[in-house]
Structures are given as structure tokens and as C-alpha cells.
Design a protein that fits this description.
This protein is mainly beta. Helices cover 9% and strands 18% of the residues. The chain binds iron/sulfur cluster (2 copies). Keywords: 4Fe-4S, Electron transport, Iron, Iron-sulfur, Metal-binding, Repeat, Transport.
Length: 55
């Protein structure tokens, strides 16, 4: 399982430094590398718009 960042993302960047395995990168919206994500939920905890969701 991995978190996926939805189109709700407003590109605030808050999640990226919170990821313990550096799975989040900036793009058109921020993106989670599913192979690297350890499903910790830290990104979802800091996101102001609840864009990261477990899939
Ligand atoms: Fe990184 Fe955890 Fe979010 Fe996965 S759930 S992208 S490991 S902060
Ligand atoms: Fe997008 Fe939420 Fe990450 Fe901000 S914290 S970049 S809104 S996913």
C-alpha cells in the first residue's frame, strides 16, 4: 500500500520535508513514489487539504 496525492493538492510543499523516506517530489502537483512510500501517513497529517490518501 502507498499514499497517493490527489488533484486537491495546492502545491504548498508542506508534506515533502515530512516524509521520512523522501518519497514525495514536486511536479505539476506533488507526487508520491509508491515503491518508496512506507505508508506512515506523515504527509496526510500536515496537508491542509487532505490530498494524500491511502490507496
Ligand atoms: Fe512519505 Fe509517509 Fe506520506 Fe508515504 S505516507 S509519502 S512514507 S510521508
Ligand atoms: Fe499538496 Fe498537501 Fe503536500 Fe501541500 S501538503 S504539497 S497540498 S499534498
Amino acid at each position: 500500500m502507498a499514499y497517493v496525492i490527489s488533484n486537491e493538492c495546492i502545491n504548498c510543499g508542506a508534506c515533502e520535508p515530512e516524509c521520512p523516506v523522501s518519497a514525495i517530489t514536486e511536479g505539476d502537483i506533488y507526487v508520491v513514489d509508491a515503491d518508496t512510500c512506507i505508508d506512515c501517513g506523515a504527509c496526510a497529517d500536515v496537508c491542509p487539504v487532505d490530498a494524500p490518501q491511502p490507496q
